[in-house]
Amino acid sequence: MFELAEDEIEVGMGIHGEAGYEKTKLKPSYDIASLMLDRISNVLSLKSGDSVAVIINNFGALSQLEQGIVAHDVVKVLRNMNVNPVRVYWGMVMTSLNSAGVHVTLLKLPDKHKSLFLKCLDAPTDAPKWPGSKFSVPIEPSEPIIQHEVIRKVDQIGIEIPSDLQGLLKHCLKNACENAIKEEEHLNDLDRGCGDSDAGSTLKRLAIRTLLNLDKLQFSHPASAFLELAHIAEEEMGGASGALYCLFFTTISTQLISPINKNWTEIWAHAFRTALNSLTQYGKAMPGDRSLIDPLNALCDTLDRTVHKPLGEICDALRISTWQACEATKHMKPMVGRASYVKQAKYLQNVDAGAFAVVTCVNAITDVLKNFHFSK
């Protein structure tokens, strides 16, 4: 029989608990699948283009979730080897005293008799624990459907800006989207524990769709461009984030139709402040509630305070104030969203994911603005 430390696993263990061929430290599921399949593929002399049937046997104590993760990773490893898993069966085929473990078995399907083997595998049976069914055939990975034309076309509304400012606005948006995509994993990590672990993925969907439609947005009329952004956010992000971003962009659009100021810094300051007020009114979050509102409020306060200063100074002040507001969320008690009812303090030691997303975009935009400023 085997003995294992808390952080060890036994590879090659027998169904009755017989010791395996190797003890190793606990690893991610994908790495364990790679380790097992490397051994098996050597024994079977698997090569690129081969087809196999797979049985993943649950020893009894793995949850459905864990069993599914193993099955997913086994299929992924095989496909990365360019080996085609044409049948994948999983379940409690033969348990081992309710142990927490899995067996992975491969049947190499010879090209000459593949159809016969599959016919036998698919044949009806009364065996009570045989997990085979039509659902055991994994769906081939397909290319995602990219809909390049997803923006709702809107009329040209509001003021028209000169070509150099059109290019600047486009560059700012492009840089913000690219920065958001780079920060996907970090944002997801920040959202883990007290969120859905998808803050980065959600923002990435908005960023990708915006980049795909970048040449279609009507930058000549900023009010139209922001309304188009609102539609993209609504359609791509979903959930509360989609609603908030849509509201934010829509409100900015309304303020760019007939701005009361002629100075562009004042126009943007007023538009952002009005958009922030909409978020607090309808989203119910206030400054200090540990959310994206905190750096947005700092941004608006900074714009109000520095509106008549040189652009370079404004950019520096925006970066500092929004980052400080983001950092401050570490020490705030969350009052909105899922984080407001998560009790574990360990999940609330990092900055808020939504706040960090705002900082990510502010940094990207100010980088562009400073380069524009200093090149003038």
From TrEMBL:
- GO MF: ATP binding; FAD-AMP lyase (cyclizing) activity; glycerone kinase activity; triokinase activity
What is the annotated quaternary arrangement, including any partners? Homodimer. Interacts with IFIH1 (via the CARD domains), the interaction is inhibited by viral infection.
Matches recorded under SUPFAM superfamilies: DAK1/DegV-like, DhaL-like
Q: Where would I find the DhaL domain in this sequence?
A: 167-367
Q: What is the protein's name according to its record?
A: Triokinase/FMN cyclase
Keywords in alphabetical order, please.
ATP-binding, Cobalt, Kinase, Lyase, Nucleotide-binding, Transferase
All copies of domain DhaK, residue ranges: 1-130
EC number in record: 2.7.1.28, 2.7.1.29, 4.6.1.15
Q: What is catalyzed by this enzyme?
A: dihydroxyacetone + ATP = dihydroxyacetone phosphate + ADP + H(+); D-glyceraldehyde + ATP = D-glyceraldehyde 3-phosphate + ADP + H(+); FAD = riboflavin cyclic-4',5'-phosphate + AMP + H(+)
Q: What does this protein do?
A: Catalyzes both the phosphorylation of dihydroxyacetone and of glyceraldehyde, and the splitting of ribonucleoside diphosphate-X compounds among which FAD is the best substrate. Represses IFIH1-mediated cellular antiviral response.
* GO cellular component entries: cytosol
The top of its lineage is: Eukaryota, Metazoa, Ecdysozoa, Arthropoda, Hexapoda
